Structures are given as structure tokens and as C-alpha cells.
Amino acid sequence: MLWLSYSLRNLLARRMTSALTLIGLSLVIFVLTAVLMLAHGLERTLASTGQADNALILRKGTTLEISSSVYRDQARIILTQPEIAVDARGMPLGTGEFVVLIAMRKLGGSVGNVMLRGTSPEAITLRPQVRLTQGRWWQPGTDEIVIGAQIAKEFPSARIGTSQRIGKRDWRIVGIFDAGRSGFDSEVWGDAEQFLPLFGRTAFTSVIAKVRDGPAFESLRQRLETDRRLLLQVKRERDYYNEKSARLAAFIRSVGLALTTIFSVGAILGATMTMSGAVASRVGEIGTLRALGFLRSHILFAFLSESVILGCCAGVLGVLTASLLQHITISVLNWSTFSELAFEFRLSPAIAGSGFLFAIVMSVCGSVLPAVRAARLGVIDALGARTL
Q1: Distance between alpha carbon 200 and the CA centroid of its chain, in Å?
Q2: Angle at 258 between CA 31 and CA 30, to 5 degrees
Q3: Alpha-carbon span 180 to 48, nearest angstrom
Q4: DSSP letter (8 states) at residue 25
Q5: What is the mean pLDDT of residues 355-367?
Q6: In a 10 Å sphere around its CB, with 0-12 CB exposed, 13-18 middle and 19+ buried, how is residue 243 labelled?
Q7: Are 99 and 116 in contact, with CB atoms under 8 Å apart?
Q8: Which pLDDT tens digit goes with each residue over 227-277?
Q9: Which pTM value belongs to this model?
Q10: Which of 127, 186, 110, 201 is CA-nearest to residue 151?
Q11: Could you count the other beta carbons within 10 Å of the beta carbon of residue 324?
């Protein structure tokens, strides 16, 4: 392990160049990790929005709640199916919902699209991750609404006790709910029966219902989707929201990986120049090591290990720095629903491991040619260069 000790000592001896190379590599890892955290945060936010045992019923052929239509008689048929779970009173655990986009003014004066969800108190039971943090829930049959935690942060006009103009009526905000960092945090909830006539609608956009167990879902889906009178499609609520994150997450990853590729080329070139300079300044040392009995492979591994050590340090530094972004929440336009969606950067072991490995790969790519050149130096040539 003498060659490893030699590598460490040389890195410490060249503090300035080692530090510059370390900073360059860590910046690339920071960008890569931040992008992957952003896409992962989006996916986690929407994945946690839906419940695995909830069925979401939409009109056949539609991909969004907002463009779907489920008539009241269809909703009644759905909730009488034997696969639907019931509460202690024997009532089905399900409800029709109405979803529409509304405009609200954000911090800074810009206008953002917000998802307005007309539902019923049963929705709170169907979505256990949703809990009230301030005020109270809306009363059915009134012009009261509650807002998600992110709406309260992003929109200054949305405060408990204030009124929000929706349609041609003023709606009083009576509570704020937290949905466990899910997409519901970016929504406004109220009574569906009050919203439907306000927007000139008579049909729900979807029906949400809790299914008794796993096999019951497939039975329910087959029965409803094969009934030509209903023209409905059945999805697991979690699968529906996962689909909504796919397009935007893929775009974020594509742009981020393109930027990372460009930056990584610069980092690799920088590492190559640094190692080439190290080889040129240590030709005499290489000759001495060869004369002392070090093999070519030892010289090769010594220079490669220097770069790997730098890559490991850069990977740790870049990932640790990017992990600080987990305290930041951003709001973007979800292309699938055209509404504002707030989510956080999320770091996972897989992302941290990817950043760490990519740092090592970059460092090795930048040091291969200089290391091979150093290993190929002959004893006489190297000692001759030292004498000169």
C-alpha cells in the first residue's frame, strides 16, 4: 500500500491544484444531484397524493380529472358495487368530485392556476394523509372553503377569515390543511354541490372510492369498464398521479443531464490537465520509484488513486451540498394538469450513490491518459529528465 500513501502525500503537497480540481468536480456533482432530487421530489409528491386502495373512476378516453365527466346516476351505480368498502353505518366509502382550474394572485403579483376540488366530507376519510392544521373544515351547503398548506404560502390573499373570489361569488376561507407534502397541498377544497352550479355543470368530473382489497379492484375495474352503458375507466388513485408526474419529471431529468454532460466535459478536461501537469513535474520522482523497484502497474495505480481520492471527496462534497436543498420548496406548472404544483427537493440513497459514482467516473476518465503516460516512462528516460 506504499503507492497509496505516496498518492495521498502528493495530493497534500499540491493543495492548490487539488482544491481547484475538487471544486470543479463537486460542482458538477452538485448540479447532477440537484436535478435528480428535483425530479424525484416531483414524483414523490404526486405518488404520495394517491392512496393505493382508492379507485379513481373517470370517463373512458380521458386522461385528466379536469376533462372527465361522470353523471350522477353513474356515480350512484359505482357506489353500489360490492367491491366498494363501507363505513360502520354501512354507507359506501366514496364520493363524486368536481375539479376545475381557477386563477389566484401569487406573491410578486403574478397569477397562478390553482386546482379547485369540489368534494364532500367523505374525501377526508378516503385520504388519511390530509389533516387540518388551522381553523376548521368547510360546512356542506355553505360558501366556505379550505386551502392547502402550499396555497397559504404561495398566495398572500389566501388567509383564514378572508374571502376569495371564485366564479361570481365570494368564498370564505375557514381552514388550512396539510396533505403530507402531496399534491393536495396545492389545492383548494370545498363543497362540490356548491361549485357545480357555479360553473354551470351538472356532472362530477370523477368518483373516488375505497376498494375492499386488492383482488376486489380488478373485479371492479373489469365490471365497470366492460359495461357499455357506463363508458367509464377505473384506475388506482396512486397510479393516476404517478402518470401525471412522468412527463414533467422526464423533462427535468433530460435538461439536467444535458447540462451535467456539458459541465462534466469541462471537469474531465480540467482533471486531465491537472494530472498531466502533475506527471510533467514529477518525472524525476517516477524514475526514482522505478529504480527502487516499483512496477509500471504501481505507477499507474498511484496516479489513478490520486484521481479516485479526489473523485470520492468531490462526490461527498457535492452530494452533501445538494442535500441542503431539501429545505427548499419550489412551485412549477404541472404540464399534465396546467395547475401550480409545489414540491421539495428529495434526496434518496440511489441519487446519492449515483452522484458519488459519477464523481469517481469523471475523475478516472480525466486521469487515465496522464496515468498511462506516467506508467510508460522508462527508468533511464525519467532519471535523465531529472538530471537535465
Answers
A1: 36
A2: 10
A3: 8
A4: H
A5: 85
A6: middle
A7: yes
A8: 888 899 999 998 888 888 777 778 778 888 887 888 788 777 777 776 666
A9: 0.77
A10: 186
A11: 12
Please give the angle made by the CA atoms of 45, 253 and 311, to the nearest 5 degrees. Answer: 110
- Residues near 381 by Cβ (< 8 Å), separated by ≥ 6? 287
Q: How far apart are the first and last CA of the chain?
A: 31
In whole angstroms, what is the distance from residue 303 CA to residue 278 CA?
A: 9
DSSP string, 278-329: HHHHTHHHHHHHHHTT--HHHHHHHHHHHHHHHHHHHHHHHHHHHHGGGG-E
Which residue has 365570494 as its cell numbers? 170
Contacts of range 153-159, beta carbons closer than 8 Å, 24 or more positions apart: 153/329, 153/342, 154/106, 154/107, 154/112, 154/331, 154/340, 154/342, 155/104, 155/105, 155/106, 155/107, 155/112, 155/114, 156/105, 156/106, 156/107, 157/104, 157/105, 158/104, 158/188
Question: Which residue, chain included where needed, has cell 459519477?
Answer: 358
Of residues 52, 49, 96, the one with CA closest to residue 77: 96
- pLDDT, tens digit, for every residue of 275-286? 666 665 565 566
Q: From CA 151, how far away is CA 158, in angstroms rounded? A: 7
Domain map of the chain by residue range? 2-47+244-387, 54-212
158 contacts 104 by C-beta, under 8 angstroms: yes
Q: Which three cell numbers stand for residue 191?
A: 363543497
CB-based burial of residue 60 (10 Å sphere; 0-12 exposed, 13-18 middle, 19+ buried)?
middle
